[in-house]
Design brief:
globular, 4% strand, mainly alpha
């Protein structure tokens, strides 16, 4: 993890457990496709599926995650191999996705369509970046949160 004291540095959560980046990017592709579906045809069931999958991956229960199961199968069939990447940033990003998808579900059920669409568009962009460009926005969100909490703690002292 990089030093977070300088403005240009980036901090990522690290847990020293390697996962397959190819599989992670395929999971992001699943999220991207489902997010597109939700943008054009929102329904509580599809939003709930997205939230459930994020929940399972956030709490490291990947063996029950439909997206992780599908991505593992695709990775195997296409013989994509194992490209190691630390699991920490990916789990953090799944937690952010869980937060957004729960927000999507609540705003959808409350009838706040515009708010739901904004949250969905955000997940769509983040999943596109991860899937097609291997760009994890989670590290940037994490860095911002760390800096905010660091500033808040220093102001209390």
């Amino acid at each position: 993890m990089k030093n977070i004291n300088t403005q240009s540095s980036l901090a990522c959560p690290v847990d020293f457990i390697a996962v397959n980046e190819n599989k992670v990017r395929l999971i992001a592709l699943h999220v991207f496709v489902l997010s597109i579906v939700i943008l054009f045809q929102p329904h509580w069931i599809t939003i709930g599926l997205l939230a459930t999958d994020f929940f399972l991956r956030t709490f490291n229960v990947n063996k029950f995650s439909p997206f992780a199961i599908s991505a593992a199968g695709i990775t195997k069939v296409l013989a994509l191999g194992f490209k190691p990447v630390d699991q920490g940033p990916k789990r953090f990003a799944a937690g952010v996705g869980l937060t957004f998808s729960l927000g999507m579900l609540v705003t959808y059920l409350a009838g706040y369509t515009t708010a739901m669409l904004i949250l969905t568009a955000t997940i769509t962009v983040f999943s596109f970046l991860e899937s097609f460009l291997a760009f994890c926005a989670g590290c940037y969100v994490y860095t911002i949160l760390i800096r905010v909490f660091k500033i808040a703690q220093s102001s209390k002292q």
